[in-house]
Specification:
By secondary structure, the protein is an alpha+beta fold. 12% of the residues lie in helices and 30% in strands. It contains one helix and five strands. The protein has a five-stranded antiparallel beta sheet with strand order 1-3-4-5-2, with helices on one face. A hairpin with a 2-residue loop joins strand 3 and strand 4.
Length: 98
């Protein structure tokens, strides 16, 4: 992961509107809402990008993420996964830069 600071949207603990990603998880707040009352997909994408920290990433969304839950993100072979209660909600795959 790149060097970050307390105001970082992904991992900064003083950024009240950010993810405050800590220990591979973050809580989906009302401020993170998108269409239909679920987490905005950009929020999930930001969490995955925080973990992989690569230039070119393809993201697949598998399920909507409700507000008020913890999302666990972690690196996996060649990318990262986001899970809620053990269920895959999104996957990031690193693509080579050409």
């Amino acid at each position: 992961m790149s060097e970050h600071h307390d105001g970082c949207f992904g991992c900064g603990q003083v950024n009240l509107f950010g993810l405050q990603l800590e220990g591979g998880r973050f809580f989906v707040k009302q401020d993170h809402q998108g269409p239909r009352g679920f987490a905005h997909r950009g929020i999930i994408a930001a969490a995955l990008l925080e973990v992989v920290d690569e230039e070119r990433v393809e993201i697949e969304f598998h399920a909507p993420v409700p507000v008020g839950v913890f999302v666990h993100v972690g690196a996996s072979g060649g990318g990262a996964e986001a899970r809620v209660d053990g269920n895959l909600v999104a996957r990031a795959t690193v693509r080579p830069v050409s």
